[in-house]
Amino acid sequence: MYQPVHLSDDIYYVGVNDRRTGLFENIWPLPRGVAYNSYLINDEKVALIDTVEIGQVEKFLKKIHAIIGDKAIDYLIINHMEPDHAGAVSIIRELYPQIRIVGNKKTLPMVEGFFSINDNTIEVKEGDELDLGKHKLQFYMAPMVHWPETMMTYEASRKILFSADAFGSFGTLDGGIFDDEMDFSYFSDEMRRYYSNIVGKYGNPVQKVLGKIKELSVNIIASAHGPVIRSHINEVTEWYDRWSRFDTDEGVVLAFASMYGNTEEMVEVTARALAEEGIKEIRIYDVSQTHSSFIISDIFKYKGVVLASPTYNGKLHPKMEALVNELLHIGVKNRYLGILGSFTWAGTAAKQLKESGESLNWELVGQPVEEKHALKKQKYDECRILGKHLADKLISERK
Ligand code: FEO
């Protein structure tokens, strides 16, 4: 029934879309769903590369059956054990009891731990090869991108890299499977949101894996999420290189918490000064309205960050505190920081934001501006000066 989707003559896309799950990992909003990608190689030996999240297994099995009918699957390659990909391992094993599960020394204990499977497994290491007949698969370890067992599988004759989560993005594949079958701009933003929030902590491991990929000739990147990439290979590898080095574009993200609008007003004044000085990429986010994953995605893109918060019960506004904690958790590096705050009887927000900036090793630009009660002339001017300082700093780095 299903029209097979070919990556090449006998290599197929058998992934599925999930439009029902609201939060990926029960954290990250999925406004346009997510795809769990899996791939099938129908050679003398049949190999399945990763499975899908368990809730989507029925569609997945139908797609496999449409390609191989009653033929057995010989190998299940597990590039990544997170249950959005390994969710159907048990069912696949039940349906294909002779299947051999292929993973590395970190994968196989997880297979046993999650599924109580410890037989019919094959342990592979860096550079090992699995012969399917016409196709040979090579394995490259990708530890901490973003789990320790993660690996990539390379098919040399068609130059396909099955890259696990790397180069993946949120968003379902709505008809188009390949990057050149769709407007890729949506996925480029969602790739950054996926990277920054899920993989972003692991810049050094990503750099190591990019070094390995550079040695391979790659025509197709078949990620575990989002479009199969064949027309934007240089772009996505360059993005990954930049993001993992915390390299940035010129621009400023102003993220604020504001109960009654006083802190927000300071942000608006600062943003206007930035624009007057020639900064064109300015993003203002209310942390109470926009999920942190979108804010962090833009913080990964732009060099300038302004954090603004009222003092709330002697601390940061809880929503700002949560954003700051996530930035600390990821360890975002190499940013310019401006600070704004407001209070009614005792101000501590600006001081706490300054301490967080120091923990992140971000460069503080200008002086933190903290207003008591409503915004008045002196602090209004200081917001403008802060905007100007930040703009000057960014503009001085223009190439
Ligand atoms: Fe797509 Fe780390 O799972």
Question: What is this structure's SSE topology?
Answer:
Layout: E1 5-8, E2 11-13, E3 16-18, E4 23-24, E5 28-29, E6 34-36, E7 39-42, E8 46-49, H1 57-68, E9 75-77, H2 83-86, H3 89-95, E10 100-103, H4 107-115, E11 121-123, E12 129-131, E13 136-141, E14 151-155, E15 160-162, H5 185-199, H6 203-215, E16 220-222, H7 233-244, E17 249-256, H8 262-276, E18 282-286, H9 292-301, E19 302-312, E20 315-316, H10 318-330, E21 336-343, H11 349-360, E22 363-364, E23 369-372, H12 377-395
Parallel strand pairs: 8-9, 9-10, 10-11, 15-16, 17-18, 17-19, 19-21, 21-22, 21-23
Antiparallel strand pairs: 1-2, 2-7, 3-6, 4-5, 7-8, 12-13, 13-14, 14-15, 19-20
Main attributes of the structure:
alpha/beta, 399 residues, binds MU-OXO-diiron
Describe the fold and architecture.
This protein has helices spanning 57-68, 83-86, 89-95, 107-115, 185-199, 203-215, 233-244, 262-276, 292-301, 318-330, 349-360, 377-395, and strands at 5-8, 11-13, 16-18, 23-24, 28-29, 34-36, 39-42, 46-49, 75-77, 100-103, 121-123, 129-131, 136-141, 151-155, 160-162, 220-222, 249-256, 282-286, 302-312, 315-316, 336-343, 363-364, 369-372. With 399 residues, the chain is of the alpha/beta class. The strands form 5 sheets. A 7-stranded mixed sheet has the order 1-2-7-8-9-10-11, with helices on one face. Strands 17, 18, 19, 20, 21, 22 and 23 form a 7-stranded mixed sheet that branches. It has a 5-stranded mixed sheet with strand order 12-13-14-15-16, with no helix packed on it. It is 35% helix and 24% strand.
